[in-house]
Automatic annotation (TrEMBL):
HIT domain sequence ranges: 6-115
GO MF annotation, one: catalytic activity
Signal peptide: none
Pfam families associated with the record: HIT (PF01230)
Positions of short motif Histidine triad motif: 99-103
Residues the record marks as active site: 101
PANTHER family in UniProt: HISTIDINE TRIAD HIT PROTEIN
UniProt cross-references to CDD domains, sorted A to Z: PKCI_related (cd01276)
Name of the protein in question: Histidine triad nucleotide-binding protein
InterPro entries associated with the record: Histidine_triad_CS, Histidine_triad_HIT, HIT-like, HIT-like_sf
Originating organism: Candidatus Kutchimonas denitrificans
Amino acid sequence: MADDCLFCKIAAGDVSADTVRESEEWIAFRDINPQAPTHILVIPRQHIATLNEAGPGEAEMLGRLLLAAKEIAAEEGIAEEGYRTVLNCNPGAGQSVFHIHLHVLGGRAMGWPPG
Ligand code: 5GP
Ligand code: ZN
């Protein structure tokens, strides 16, 4: 757990969140400022600040985050219609919380390219 990391605090239960699903390795909760009717964040319990800091040892964990996103999309009823997974890396891409997180967005039409 990193000092002063909001998402480490959510993973530890020290900051409350609307959790939808969790495992020993990750936790998924609703975004506080949703950008779509369904907007869920899937985060590893392990603190990794950005994708740039992830190494080969995290490969399986990162893959399981994507599989969690798939299961969550099915539970939320957006799997067939379509949904988007996003992992912003560094401020130039819009990252504002420096503990990696996979956004799962759906429930509305999505534009491309993203802004
Ligand atoms: P980023 O911009 O880093 O890719 O995404 C961070 C996300 O975390 C944003 O969508 C933001 O709304 C969300 N967020 C920030 N603080 C909180 C919080 O305290 N609780 C929850 N549930 N989401 C948060
Ligand atoms: Zn953290």
